[in-house]
Amino acid sequence: MKKPIAQLVLIFSLLWTSGSAAGKRRPDGRIVNGREAFDGEFPYQLSLRRLTIHICGAAVLDGSWAITAAHCVDGHERKPQEFSLRLGSVRRSSGGSLMNVRTIYKHPTYDPKDMNFDVALLRTQIGALTMDPNAAPISLPESGEPIVENLSAVVSGWGHMSSTESTLSSVLKYTTVLTVNQQKCHRNLMFHGGVTDVMFCAAARNTDACQGDSGGPLVAQGKLIGIVSWGVGCADPYYPGVYARMSHPSIRRWVRLLTKL
């Protein structure tokens, strides 16, 4: 059973990382040394599934809309019927509710070569994502809202638990990270293309540099400040995890245009 899942994860990773820059910028997929969540602790957390297999994290925005990373759905926008969302459960493969994705919207300026604007919206049946009593939306930051250095934030996901183990976690894991100075982050990742103003970094020494499942939520002060995007290596303090910046004006305008949120 483990072998097919590992093969599918590898296939998706290879598809996502086409292009020279993306070959260095690997979609992020691990919670290292995280703690197991209990039922109801992360009501906004979703498991994005393709052909019944968990491929990414996502987050509830309201009853009809979820948000994830663009690289999680890149190339499959016209096949939303292949995707579903598990909500209301900390278990990756059981519990909660399963809802079908009806429409996929990738950010119009997403670039798979450099992972810029790595955000996608998923539309479901009206009210589907708040029908489960253990599911609830997460708030968004205001447009242009700054992310201060050393801000404590929580990232969660079902990703690989170490850089050498390709098995997904069966139970949702989470850990606390701190946001990194933007200039320092850019310098650290210079040889991997650096970061743009649509991205920001967060890290935690000896616990989590890869940050979590691709497309998963990074939450601070009750707001979804970031979407897990890409990383270099795993659990390396010199290479912090990189997130899509949810407060970036171009992202917030686009989200508001589609969802009215």
Index terms:
Thrombin, subunit H, 7-stranded antiparallel beta sheet, 6-stranded antiparallel β-barrel, alpha+beta, 261 residues, 2 domains, disordered N terminus, single chain
**Strand runs, count:** 15
Give the uncertain stretches in residue-range form.
1-23
Assign the CATH superfamily of the largest domain: Trypsin-like serine proteases
Give the biggest beta sheet.
Answer: 7 strands, antiparallel
User: CATH topology of the largest domain, what is it called?
Assistant: Thrombin, subunit H
General shape: globular
Query: What does the radius of gyration come to?
Result: 16 Å
Number of helices: 4
The CATH architecture classification of the largest domain is Beta Barrel
Strand content: 25-35%
In N-to-C order, the SSE pattern is HHEEEEEEEEEEEHEEEEH
Distance between the first and last residues' Cα: 40 Å
Arithmetic mean pLDDT? 85
Strand order of the largest sheet: 7-6-3-4-5-9-8
Percent helix range: 10-25%
Please tell me the total number of domains. 2
Tell me the name of the CATH class of the largest domain.
Mainly Beta
Condensed summary:
It is found in: Secreted, Extracellular space. By secondary structure, the protein is of the alpha+beta class.
Structure description:
This protein is an alpha+beta fold. The chain folds into 2 domains: 2-19 and 43-137 and 250-259, Thrombin, subunit H (Beta Barrel); 152-246, Thrombin, subunit H, CATH 2.40.10. Helix content is 15%, strand content 29%. It is built from 4 helices and 15 strands. The strands form 2 sheets. Strands 7-6-3-4-5-9-8 form a 7-stranded antiparallel sheet. The protein has a 6-stranded antiparallel barrel with strand order 10-11-12-15-14-13. β13 and β14 (223-231) form a beta hairpin. The chain is globular, with a radius of gyration of 16 Å. The model is unreliable at 1-23 (pLDDT under 50). One of its GO terms (molecular function) is serine-type endopeptidase activity. Belongs to the peptidase S1 family. It is an enzyme of class 3 (hydrolase). It is found in: Secreted, Extracellular space. Its main location: secreted.
